[in-house]
Design brief:
The protein is of the alpha+beta class. The protein has 13 helices and 14 strands. A hairpin with a 4-residue loop joins β1 (124-129) and β2 (134-137).
Length: 445
């Protein structure tokens, strides 16, 4: 009698028998009290049949409540003996609860893993909602904000108003700098929508150490270049000075109140002084180039037409191009494209790049130079393209280093100045080169 259907059948038969007996008693006037008792028994049997048959609904309700309140510990097995259908239903419920239990466990493990990673990264991470309630604050962020238990971002307004302003005003897709005596932070923001709430995620990265390292490396490189150039001039000057003194000591003869010098010695003296003069002029030229690199004026930013900028550069270079066989062409994707720049400074960059291309094509029979302006959907580009010998891979990463040059003549300052001018315009100057095929210098605004 463990099967649900048999037990239900027994209950129905008993209910029918009890009902029949009650009706029999009801027809006998002397048995009305007993018939009333039988009515109570019949009602109890009806309730029992209802309770017995509705246990599946109760089980389903308990299962849904377990899912709702994440109670995945309880199981279903008490009525497995009522038949295969009940046992199958219990097994299905238990399997679903087990799947939920595993999913929650994996979710917690993933959260712990992600939280560990977030806490270990060197970037400070802080997130908060529209009310300022802090959702996430990792270890480095606590160090940067100097708060170990920050509950609301608005609490920073009184404790660190400058950092609070920087975090609050950080915009998605833009980088903001915040400087203290200890840190130089770059702040970047991202806005998310999670469970119907707007969340702002701000990352804070300390670039102080990296900047100091790069600054030290830059000074070392500059010192190395300066030492190399100065020694190249001072060493021969010092040597020649000693030689000239020896000539005067041995070849200069005093007769009466006058000094005589042989013609050969005089020629040597004249040649030595000429060499000293040339090396001195070279050293002065180098120092002037260094001064020019370190004393660029601030750009006067105005809105200028891109096509006008290209045409003026082409007009200025027309005289130089006439003495060569180089084919020069210009193009601009629109007559109405504008850039925010100092026209004179950008023209100087373009002139320098075109001149470099002309020099590289001096031995090329079919030299071509293109000066193109266009818009790529995000930024405005100006390209200087030539089909000259190009730049070898070993040198392409060094051509923007001050005083580095691959030419026999030149100070190596032109490209460094050009990149510095573009950086002052919040732009960039890049190069791509395939030797003997195509070299492209690109100005990005």
């Amino acid at each position: 009698m463990k099967d649900f259907r048999i037990r239900l059948l027994i209950r129905v038969v008993l209910l029918a028998a009890t009902t029949g007996l009650m009706m029999f008693m009801w027809s006998r006037p002397n048995m009305l009290f007993a018939a009333g008792l039988m009515l109570i028994i019949v009602l109890f049997q009806i309730f029992e049949i209802y309770r017995f048959t509705s246990q599946t609904n109760r089980k389903l309700t308990r299962f849904l409540e377990s899912v709702r309140y994440s109670d995945f510990i309880s199981g279903f097995a008490a009525d497995n003996k009522l038949g295969k259908s009940f046992k199958g239903l219990n097994e299905a419920f238990n399997e679903v609860l087990e799947a939920f239990r595993k999913t929650r466990s994996e979710k917690e493990e993933n959260w712990q893993y992600l939280n560990t990673v977030v806490q270990q990264v060197r970037t400070g991470i802080i997130s908060f909602d529209t009310d300022g309630t802090v959702q996430l604050l990792n270890a480095n962020a606590k160090k940067f904000v100097n708060e170990a238990n920050l509950k609301n971002i608005n609490d920073l307004a009184s404790k660190n108003p400058k950092l609070f302003t920087a975090i609050s005003e950080a915009q998605a897709g833009k980088s903001t700098l915040y400087k203290t005596n200890e840190f130089l932070l770059t702040l970047q923001a991202t806005e998310l929508r999670i469970r119907g709430s707007n969340i702002k995620l701000v990352t804070m990265q300390n670039i102080q150490t990296e900047l100091q390292r790069q600054e030290l490396e830059a000074w070392q490189n500059l010192t190395r270049v300066l030492r190399h150039e100065i020694m190249n001039s001072i060493t021969p000057i010092s040597s020649l000075t000693s030689t000239l003194r020896e000539i005067l000591d041995h070849e200069l003869v005093k007769k009466d109140n006058e000094f005589e010098l042989k013609a050969e010695a005089a020629d040597d003296l004249r040649e030595g002084l000429s060499t000293i003069e040339n090396r001195s002029k070279g050293l002065i030229k180098f120092i002037d180039a260094y001064r020019e690199y370190t004393s660029l004026p601030q750009p006067k930013i105005k809105s200028i037409l891109l096509k006008q900028l290209i045409d003026r550069t082409a007009l200025f270079m027309s005289t130089s191009l006439k003495t060569t066989s180089v084919q020069f062409s210009t193009s601009c994707s629109s007559d109405y494209l504008t850039v925010q720049a100092d026209a004179e400074m950008i023209e100087q960059v373009l002139i320098n790049l075109v001149k470099n291309s002309i020099e590289s094509l001096s031995q090329h029979k079919n030299g071509k130079i293109e000066l193109n302006g266009k818009y790529d959907g995000q930024t405005i580009l100006i390209e200087v393209v030539d089909n000259g010998p190009g730049i070898i891979p070993e040198a392409i990463n060094r051509i923007f280093v001050p005083f580095f040059t691959t030419k026999k003549t030149g100070s190596g300052i032109g490209l460094a100045l050009s990149r510095q001018i573009m950086q002052m315009h919040n732009g960039a100057l890049t190069v791509e080169s395939k030797p003997e095929v195509r070299t492209i210098f690109t100005l990005r605004f």
